[in-house]
Amino acid sequence: MVQAIKTTESSDVMQAKLKGKDFLSIADFSTAEILYLLEEAKELKKLQKSGIPHPYLAGKVLGMLFEKSSTRTRVSFEVGMLQLGGHAIFLSPRDIQLGRGESIHDTAIVLSRYLDALMIRTFSHESIQEFAHHADVPIINGLTDPHHPVQVMADLQTIIEYKGKLDGLKLCYVGDGNNNVTHSLIEAAAKVGMHISVASPEKYRPNQEIVAKALEDAKLTGSTISIITDPIEAMKDADVVVTDVWTSMGMEAEAQERLQAFQAYQVNEELCSYAKSDYIFMHCLPAHRGEEVTADIIDGPHSVVFDEAENRLHAQKAILKAVIL
Ligand code: CP
Ligand code: NVA
User: Fold this and answer.
1) According to DSSP H, which parts of 135-274 are helical?
2) What domain range includes position 30?
3) Over the stretch 141-159, which tens digit does the pLDDT of each residue have?
4) Do 153 and 287 share a structural domain?
5) Of the residues 76, 180, 184, which should be mutated to test ligand 2's pocket, given the most ligand atoms within 8 Å of the CB?
6) Which residue puts its alpha carbon closest to atom 6 of ligand 1?
7) Looking at the structure, do residues 167 and 123 belong to the same domain, yes or no?
8) How far apart are CA 243 and CA 226, in angstroms?
9) Is 281 found in the same domain as 193?
10) 148 belongs to the catalytic site
11) Same-domain check for residues 105 and 167
């Protein structure tokens, strides 16, 4: 179905549409734009693997502001800029005046005078929206409490690599339904015609507004979105199985309560026996073996988590090239 609405616009037109755009959530992008970025990610991965230089962003500088910890996001954005011929600067609130109370307004305007784009990992989505409102350069969301769009672009790239397509597949997410990865997956599934089943305890269901908007998008692509509490039902005939930590960054005070609440939502051999026999297992990492997923699954033959982690690099290079160039 997605193929039917796939753009016929040239890459020049797509590039013109994306230039200067913020990358705050998947829902902000059209199906055509997402598919274009995934094609670009595939090409950039090919160039990198072939050792062919691709300095599209020579002389360009990305700022990277982290208010939460990161391994993958920090390193993949920095390496991505270097591979594109540009440079990246790591900014921690401890080191810049934002951490001493300088306003987002002033920080965004000042940083826009030096940088070509700014990637931000922070808590509230409103903060990153405020940055985007005041900045003159593209703002890229490197994770907020409710969204992790750059992760999910890498997830889509990985699914295509293993399954050859997105539309018509069934993705099953088991665990914390109310976190950033789940929300971005729901938005993405709706955009690309993938069916998604999310199983989580009642208290940890996905955000209703995000689901409502995704249901609207799903009408255009034929995707179905099912938000339930039964992990077995969600898992039945899944092509792609995904989970994430039970306690996301910033929720540490609830860790004990969550450990109890999610006991029945562990991705393990028994649960995965309901998925298709050739399912792939994905996790954005970092993972807690023995909590949201057992070691035999994440380290087993269905797991693609390290390709998924690698694809952060390629998917983000496509985003950087599109919004900066
Ligand atoms: N998946 C992910 O965003 O990892 P980091 O927290 O290490 O950046
Ligand atoms: N949901 C997790 C993702 C980590 C990359 C968190 O927010 O901590």
Assistant:
1) 149-163, 180-192, 208-221, 231-235, 255-261, 269-272
2) 2-147+312-324
3) 999 999 999 999 999 999 9
4) yes
5) 180
6) 70
7) no
8) 16
9) yes
10) yes
11) no
